[in-house]
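Input/output pair, single chain:
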Amino acid sequence: MARALRRHVTGASDIGPFATATYAAIFVSFGVSSVSIVTVSKKPGVISEDETSLAIPGIISKGLSTGGTMGATKIHPFDTSSITVILVSLLLVPGIGVMNWKEAQNKINWGTICLFGVGISLGSAIISTKAGPWLAQNIVPAFGLTASSPFMILAIMALFLIIIHMGFASATALASALIPIIISVLSEVAKTQPGLNILGMTMILQYVVSFGFILPANAPQNMIAYGTETFTVKQFIRTGIPLTFLAYGCILLLSATYWKWLGYV
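Output:
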């Protein structure tokens, strides 16, 4: 992530050639997937026909997604989204798949999928329309960030991310939408504060992006847990708010001490 942020801020590229470790990671992912299938099968050591139908797309997906995203040189030109759509479609193909459309229609939470789609689309729209720099030019004077210390800038932007996360369905969608804005805001502030560590503060704020503890709709894992119907939204909020305050306090404490000593703040 640090390398990606550095390239975004400086325009530099410091990723080396496709390393041997990358090939090793691909083979390890295949091996781990295969072992997992055998160990979790209904009869240990024996794989049923349905489990085989489910396993093959899973192993292929793991290998293709690893080979397509690691290293400077890709093994294949296919992106992760295309691979996922194709292999999920295989699960519905007669004779190959493990379920039919009626089963999928009843078991899939379509509302959650739409919610994630809107959140990720919002992030893509902000990036493609260059709304990030425009928002940065308005956010900096509105919050008085130009005259603030790096610690205060971090505290204000972390609180802003926590509040705005309640409107997003996942940390991925929030990061896609707001990390470019954060980089633009910090770059704007750095014009008056040349010593500001844009890379370090962006990485710290990336932690805050994961603070989706208040509402079930703030993260996919929250929705999975909520889908078990073992607790209510009110109970989730009652637990999530203290956790959010605790996490925010930890960010401020580390920013004032350890991360400041490392020069990130």
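DSSP finds 13 helices and no strands in the chain. The two ends are 18 Å apart (CA to CA).
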